[in-house]
Amino acid sequence: MKPFAYHQPDGIPDAAKLLISIEDSKLVAGGMTLIPTLKQRLASPAALVDLSKLGSLKGLADGGTTITIGAMTPHAVVAASKLVQTKIPGLAALASMIGDPAVRSRGTIGGSVANNDPAADYPAGVLGLGATIITSKREIAADKFFLGLFETALEPGEIITAIRFPMPLKAGYAKFKAPASRYALVGVFVAKFADGVRVAVTGAGPGVFRVPPMESALSENFDPSAIAAIKINTDGLTSDIHAEADYRAHLVTVMAKRAVDAALS
């Protein structure tokens, strides 16, 4: 690990100022991705800007028809939240599947979404629920936030402060996980709203994506049988040592059916 400067600001404006003023600086939330990356010398930022002192970025708020989760809220808190378990149980289930207990106690929702790892769980939940990402500058719809491999719509100095989730009629998540990392080889989040269904897939490609044919079928009949025959095109899907693209394509349908089952139960 190479030397770097370390800053622990007291507020969002100070954190944003540090990010802009120090070239090649990085934010630290839970550090579950960044710290291992530093140890492996895959990244060598000039400075780390630690958000751990910003208590205002932690916690959950019931907005009636929405739930807002602070960016620094750990996965374990979301998983254990009675509010989330009652209003969006699929999201609580997703949070409970992330990593292991140590990762869930330190990793944060804001850090996961900002990092946009192609195999991370939260992007599927955020996109599947049509959430809104609230930043230090603006609000960004989930459909416009995730741009590709580790790429988001965040601008330099822009910091996620919270994520606002609309409450669905039903929602569920299912994933086929890598046994060591517990990242999703394929994870599918399904959410039913009054105006239709959203299906978001993580782990299968270079970034999270929606599946319109499944959304249309499930909007007509919200049952696993409605999507059993839908085949996913392998173009653009990931092939690696863990799974080939055709296997991931098969898993998308399998996990989508399980996600619908989870939503119905």
Which characteristics define this entry?
265 residues; alpha+beta; Uridine Diphospho-n-acetylenolpyruvylglucosamine Reductase, domain 2; Enolase-like, domain 1; 4-stranded antiparallel sheet; 11 helices; 14 strands; 34% helix; 25% strand
Summarize the structure.
The chain has helices at about 10-20, 35-40, 75-80, 80-85, 90-95, 100-105, 110-115, 120-130, 140-145, 210-220, 245-265; strands spanning about 5, 25-30, 45-50, 60, 65-70, 130-135, 140, 145-150, 150, 160-165, 170-175, 185-195, 195-200, 210. It is an alpha+beta fold. Strands 4-5-10-6-7 form a five-stranded antiparallel sheet. A four-stranded antiparallel sheet has the order 11-12-13-14, sandwiched between helices.
Plain-language structure description:
The chain is α+β, with helices and mostly antiparallel strands. Among the domains are: 1-53, Uridine Diphospho-n-acetylenolpyruvylglucosamine Reductase, domain 2, CATH 3.30.43.10; 170-264, CO dehydrogenase flavoprotein, C-terminal domain (Enolase-like, domain 1, 2-Layer Sandwich). The chain is built from eleven helices and 14 strands. It has helices spanning 12-21, 34-39, 75-80, 82-87, 89-96, 101-106, 109-115, 122-128, 142-145, 212-220, 245-264; strands at 5-7, 25-28, 47-50, 60-62, 66-70, 132-135, 139-141, 146-148, 151-152, 160-166, 170-177, 184-193, 196-202, 209-210. A hairpin with a 3-residue loop joins strand 6 and strand 7. The termini are far apart. Keywords: FAD, Flavoprotein, Oxidoreductase. InterPro entries: CO_DH_flav_C (IPR005107), CO_DH_flav_C_dom_sf (IPR036683), Diverse_Substr_Oxidored (IPR051312), FAD-bd_PCMH (IPR016166), FAD-bd_PCMH-like_sf (IPR036318), FAD-bd_PCMH_sub1 (IPR016167), FAD-bd_PCMH_sub2 (IPR016169), Mopterin_DH_FAD-bd (IPR002346).
